[in-house]
Prior knowledge:
0% of the residues lie in helices and 58% in strands. The chain is built from no helices and eleven strands. Strands 2, 4, 5, 6, 9, 10 and 11 form a seven-stranded mixed sheet that branches. It has a four-stranded antiparallel sheet with strand order 1-3-8-7, with no helix packed on it. The radius of gyration is 14 Å and the shape is globular.
Amino acid sequence: QVxxxxxxxxxxxxxxxxxxxxxxxxxxxxxNAMDWYRQAPGKQREFVAAIASGGSTNYADSxxxxxxxxxxxxxxxxxxQMNSLKPEDTAVYYCTLQDGLGNxxxxxxxxxxxxxxx
Length: 118
């Protein structure tokens, strides 16, 4: 089983920055990709960013140019650097992991809260 633990959320003023981390542990049969999702109150969960094993990245249009996803393979950790934060970025942020066997793991019940004050 794989466990994912997010951290780094908090309260920040609009225009500020935060760096989220998601550490994976447990029995991991390689990591193909790690993604970030978010869910704001009363809204559907939405994709934010993804990074593949080769380092290629993909972003939601709403965060392009402001957020940067990166990973440390040695630590099984993915990061999300969030700059120029907006109130609409307020949400609980979650990460997912796709392993080498095609399994997807997530932590929908945990996440880390990001609150951006206007």
